[in-house]
Amino acid sequence: MDLLSKINSPADLRKVAPEDLPRVCDEVREYLIDTLASVGGHFASNLGVVELTVALHYVLNTPEDKLIWDVGHQIYPHKILTGRREQLRSVRRRGGLSGFPKREESVYDLYNTGHAGTSISQALGEAMARDRLGLNHQCVCVIGDASVASGMAFEALNHGGHVQTDCIVILNDNDMSISKNVGALNQYLNRLITSPTYNKGKRIWYSILMWLPLIGPLVQIFSRKIERTFKDFLTPGSLFSDFGFRYIGPVDGHNVAELVEVLEKAKELKGPVLIHAYTQKGKGYVHAERDPIVYHSVSRFNREDGTMQGSKARGKISFSEIVGETLCEIIEHNEKVVVITPAMIEGSGLRSVADRFPNRVFDVGIAEQHSMAFAGGLASGGAVPYLCIYSTFMSRAYDQLIEDVALMNFPVKLIVDRAGCVGPDGETHQGLYDLGVLLSVPNVRVYAPATGGELKAFLKFVEKDSQGPIAVRFPKDSADRESLLPANLPDVTRIRPEIHQGGKDLCILAVGIMWETALGVQKELRAHGIYATVLGIRWIRPLDIEFIQNTIHDCEYMVILEDSAINSSAASHIRWSLNSASNAKHLHTFAFPVEAIVHGTREEIMHDHGLSKEAITGALLARPEFANRRIPLARQA
Question: Are 548 and 509 in contact (CB under 8 A)?
Answer without folding.
Answer: yes
